[in-house]
Amino acid sequence: MAVSPINKTIADVTDRIIKRSEKSRASYLSLMDSQRPTASARSRLTDGNLAHASAACPIHDKNAMLGAEWPNIGIVTAYNDMLSAHQPYEKYPDIIRAAARKVGATAQVAGGVPAMCDGVTQGQDGMELSLFSRDTIALSTAVALSHSTFDAALYLGICDKIVPGLLIAAVRFGWLPGIFVPAGPMPSGLPNPEKQRIRQLYAAGEVGRDALLKAESESYHTAGTCTFYGTANSNQMMMEMMGLHIPGAAFVPPGTNLRTALTEAAAQQAAAISHMKGEAAYTPISKVIDERSIVNAVVGLMATGGSTNNALHIPAIARAAGILINWSDFQDIADVTPLLCKIYPNGPSDVNHFHAAGGMGFVVRELLASGLVHNDVTTVAGDGGLERYCEEPTMNGETLTWKAAPEESLNEDVLRTKDNPMAKDGGLKLIDCPIGRGIIKISAVKEENRKVSAPAAVFDSQHAVKNAFEKGELHRDVVIVVRFQGPQANGMPELHGLSPILGLLQDKGFKVALITDGRMSGASGKFPAIIHMGPEALAGGPIASIQDGDLISLDANAGTLTVQPDDFLSRPRATREKDPGIGLGREMFAVFRNVAEEAEKGGGIFGIMDA
């Protein structure tokens, strides 16, 4: 296939990230070099250490580990059977161990990490632990790998904060080769537009909870990842774009021979790229994740209309590798990246329809042909750069093989070429305004809803918004401002529960918008929402100076937002009456809230870590 020279804007953005990150990246790489293995990881252990590490292994694996000749693969798993996406992982360790033995390797479950479901906690107090679960997962992964008996690692995780948390830790253990192993989406259920319709009818009081529960249960109905294009599926896209998957693994359904074969291939490839297979084969994650692969992930996010949550996660992942990226970089990339996909919430179709239409192989090929992504990157797939990810896996009898992705979309309502895109840009806008810096995703917002000028209605919680709606106080043109929702305030919960309310008001003909220092779900986007606004209110951000009745004017296409009166910034900042972070374990995360960085830096606790 033809790979075009890199687009000038993409090259310029990459170069400025490299220059901006020069010192921190050099420090990171120095640390990785200091940990570079020269023999098996087990050779550093005492006899007592090794006896403990191998005590429970089957006799064949124990002999191999004591002999220190086979590479040993550590499995870090986010399995639990409450998350539909992660339920298939229950049987993966046995599959991986058996596959590893076939190529002269052993595999052990190094540890488990927590995996909460945002779908369960939406609108509940537990959502205030969601973003910080990412950093908890990173810490838990570090504990799992601290046994230092592993020559490579497999990371089993899919959903919202789980993949970013695993990857932050994988990058800090970047001398280890590592591959991310997905489980695939559930079969398509109730069509997404119908689910959205029922949610809005329920918000309006026109149907009861029984109808809502029926619709939700028909949408989320079996094992596998939720099929809308939220954060979980955006994560899988990014793992392909960053070269951390076996090519084409993202959206193959669970419970199929192809899925099992891909899991086996991941185990065997992890062994093949360990240092024990020679210098030429050795592919540590610190070599896979660099400035180019981070840019490729952002391009993929824009080209597919992915989740706004990854505007938090990508900077956090990058910073773990000593790479400094900001939302101005996101904006410049979005400006030159066409939107190739319409997957719910950007359109009615789900990821199964996307996969059937050509999927990630088609997207990667179109981006390479446009010169919008770097091909000269290192991936876990071996030689060939990102071009390897233009292929899709298939079974030839009992053998896993790859073929070229379709050259033409099989459904242009879902997936299109670079020459006939859904939109000319990626649909993400940086709002740099008197209130601060935030982002808005407009790819799912109709053109007629992208300009709003209306009085502000200011709230300190999403529950207060719901109460005002139920009292009929919001049935008008309105810009709803929800503050004290940032990382330091309450862990930056998603405000997805506001989506049916604002969508209903918009459908009634009112001009509505949302401004918040909190998050919205990756499944949101029907109405204009300026999110992740920083500095956050608790840190004294200007969002705390807005009052009820202030005239707010948004032009999402232009990326502008103004507030009248002009002197609103001279007012005292509002203060929060009380800290709500008590109960359901939230008080245990006060230490996280106290040190959390602003959203544009990832909203996490780690920052740029010293070498």
Describe the structure.
With 611 residues, the protein is α/β, with parallel strands linked by helices. The chain folds into three domains: 8-187 and 222-404, no CATH class; 188-221, no CATH class; 428-601, Glucose Oxidase, domain 1. The chain is built from 22 helices and 14 strands. The protein has helices at residues 8-20, 22-34, 47-54, 59-67, 92-102, 118-121, 130-145, 162-172, 192-203, 209-219, 231-241, 257-272, 285-288, 291-304, 310-320, 327-336, 351-357, 359-369, 462-470, 487-490, 499-507, 590-595; strands at residues 72-77, 106-112, 152-156, 178-181, 391-396, 399-404, 428-433, 436-441, 451-459, 478-482, 512-516, 529-534, 551-555, 560-564. It has an eight-stranded mixed sheet with strand order 7-8-12-11-10-9-13-14. A four-stranded parallel sheet has the order 2-1-3-4, with helices on both faces. A hairpin with a 4-residue loop joins β13 and β14 (560-564). The longest helix has 16 residues, at 130-145. The chain is globular.
List the helices and strands and how they pair.
Layout: H1 8-20, H2 22-34, H3 47-54, H4 59-67, E1 72-77, H5 92-102, E2 106-112, H6 118-121, H7 130-145, E3 152-156, H8 162-172, E4 178-181, H9 192-203, H10 209-219, H11 231-241, H12 257-272, H13 285-288, H14 291-304, H15 310-320, H16 327-336, H17 351-357, H18 359-369, E5 391-396, E6 399-404, E7 428-433, E8 436-441, E9 451-459, H19 462-470, E10 478-482, H20 487-490, H21 499-507, E11 512-516, E12 529-534, E13 551-555, E14 560-564, H22 590-595
Parallel strand pairs: 1-2, 1-3, 3-4, 9-10, 10-11, 11-12
Antiparallel strand pairs: 5-6, 7-8, 8-12, 9-13, 13-14
